[in-house]
Amino acid sequence: AGVGGGIGGSAGGCGGASSGSGSGLPLLVQRTIAKQIHLVHSIGKGRYGEVWKAKWRDENVAVKIFFSTEEASWSREIQLYQTVLLRHENILGFIASDIKGTGSWTQLFLVMDYHEYGSLYDYLHQHTLDLVTLIKMAVSAISGLTHLHTEIHGTQGKPSIAHRDIKSKNILVKKNLTCCIADLGLAVRFISDTNELDIALNTRQGTRRYMAPEVLDESMEKGHFESFKQADMYSMALVMWELAWRCNAFGPVEEYQAPYYDMVGGDPSFDDMKRVVCVNGSRPHVMQRWMLNEIMRSYTNIMMECWSVIPAARLTSLRVRKSLTKLKGQLRDVDALERV
Ligand code: ADP
Ligand code: MG
Ligand code: MG
Known about the structure:
Elements: H1 27-33, E1 37-45, E2 49-56, E3 59-66, H2 71-81, E4 94-100, E5 107-113, H3 120-126, H4 131-149, E6 160-162, E7 171-173, E8 179-181, E9 188-191, E10 196-198, H5 213-216, H6 225-245, H7 270-279, H8 294-306, H9 317-339
Helix pairs in contact: 4-6, 4-9, 6-8, 8-9
Bound molecules: adenosine-5'-diphosphate and magnesium ion (2 copies).
EC number: 2.7.11.30
Subcellular location: Membrane
Catalytic activity: L-threonyl-[receptor-protein] + ATP = O-phospho-L-threonyl-[receptor-protein] + ADP + H(+)
């Protein structure tokens, strides 16, 4: 089942026992984990299976159970989580993988840290955000994406990773209201030194609503790894818009809406999105009031630079992280002044 197993971690199976970062628990522990897991309730259904809240040795964990027909997706996602040096506070923590059952009835497990609030998509339906929380969520999400995108050179280095399915449903909200990036099922890895690219076996693409214009009009330069990262930045800009939409700092907040909610239906087709994003050149609506506050104006400008139709004109994740971190500092200064 291994795809380009040369890049980080091991192909297919359960990975090294002590390679540390990214590989979760030691192999022998992983092999016994499924037996010790008690499923509590279902959290979400996906294309590949179902995610459950579960108990493992008194601890809450999340278990993604893949259909037995989706073994390739399961092993691909494990493989991504086992990437050397992947672990980061803003990337969903991987605990273990295991197989339960035999023969015709097998369950493929992926065990991960459990986050009570669930996805950012769910969180934004139920909560509005003050400006501090908005910036905190944005900084943490982009920090996770920056860590994915950044290549670390050397023999124990980390490949550059493009996510390819950035959206609010694939970002989780932690207890302290920072975010972490989840669902690495579509990610691709790249090592620049050897020009090694590993593309997922499945040719499935990301979520249509979040697809960058160059993905929609099929003009993306797929031989150039930077293109995948640039497409991630477009999707992240839409997530930044979702956050802004639910910010309560500048007047009454409207209920949660998905990006392009006023231009396409609930399950837009490829052609719907292409018409709106490429032909009409539309982007999510920017509220006038976002431009009246200095910090919010900067945030909005960063967001708009990231959804440029020209991939190379988009800011990099590192640049966005730096700019948003600066805004976070400014907010703290304002806050300090107000308390004097
Ligand atoms: P799929 O590949 O099927 O989209 P995901 O990994 O994105 O599966 O998970 C589907 C949904 O399950 C997420 O959108 C989120 O709502 C929920 N979920 C996934 N992982 C966790 C977790 N670790 N903690 C809490 N909720 C989670
Ligand atoms: Mg998902
Ligand atoms: Mg997935």
